[in-house]
Amino acid sequence: MPASKTPIYSALAANLAIAITKFVAAGVTGSSAMISEGIHSLVDTLNEILLLLGIRRSQQPADERRPFGYGKELYFWAFIVSILIFGIGGGVSFYEGITHLQHPEPISDPHWNYIVLGIAFCFDGVSFITALREFNRQRGSQPFWSAVKRSKDPSTFVVLFEDAADLLGLIVAFLGVFLGHQFNNPYFDGAASLIIGLILTAVSILLARESRSLLMGESADPTVLRSVAALVERDDTVIHVLQSPSMYLAPEEVFLMLVVDFRNDLTTIDINQAIDRIRTTIQHEFPIIKRVFIEPGGEKNSAIKPHAES
């Protein structure tokens, strides 16, 4: 089921508007936590742009340089996004927090911070709900964490976790500003920046791990592969499916290789006709399998030239 771009556009608009207001509030109040939050929103805005770039590039048709298409562009850019969250978002938040702890400055008037944080929480909340609805539509009845691990579309869970980090960061920033002003202790503000940095680092590690797995090449679901094998073995010419290695080339594109043991009494022409028929059947029943490579196996079959989809 193809993912919708709506959560990405929603997060892009929200983060851009929020980043501007956060920087204005930080300039007025001098809050370290607000600067960290502004940088966080700015990085998220860039992340959404990179995800849209990855989606666009991944949809390019295959050519001579990339005979299997450009689907993994999305996985690459999702990995870059996870690095940016850590390197820029988390890194700058740590820097701001440490700097503010070394040179604390009390917040004179926190009202601007409260107003901006409230507005930001509303915008990020709407964006989070939009992303969560899309993710729930994608995962169906699967448990949440199982769906994250099995998801082949990083654009869905990257936006979801970004928005979750946004909301947690806003809560931490609010507590830093409130406690710092309430107790006249600027160290709360610096500590809030460090906690925001930890949140961003944790999210970036999670996203980098999932994106790396997709970039390295994940297999199709074992249930799907078993169904394909059962479908192929129903053909009169087939004895058994020996191997079925597969790999996701894009969220909605699977490459499948089948090593099939055909009946020994078949001629080469019979096997070639069976291969064409089996391929057509597989792609009709499983539209996500875009490319099928079928290789005859077994003692007699091994001498027959493999058949690949053009």
Automatic annotation (TrEMBL):
It is found in: Membrane. The keyword Translocase does not apply. It comes from the Bacteria. PANTHER family: HUEL-CATION TRANSPORTER, PROTON-COUPLED ZINC ANTIPORTER SLC30A9, MITOCHONDRIAL. NCBIfam families: CDF. It comes from Spirosoma soli. Its main location: membrane. It is a multi-pass membrane protein. Residues 10-216 form the Cation efflux protein transmembrane domain. This is Cation diffusion facilitator family transporter. The chain crosses the membrane at residues 74-94, 114-135, 156-179, 191-208. Keywords: Membrane, Transmembrane, Transmembrane helix, Transport.
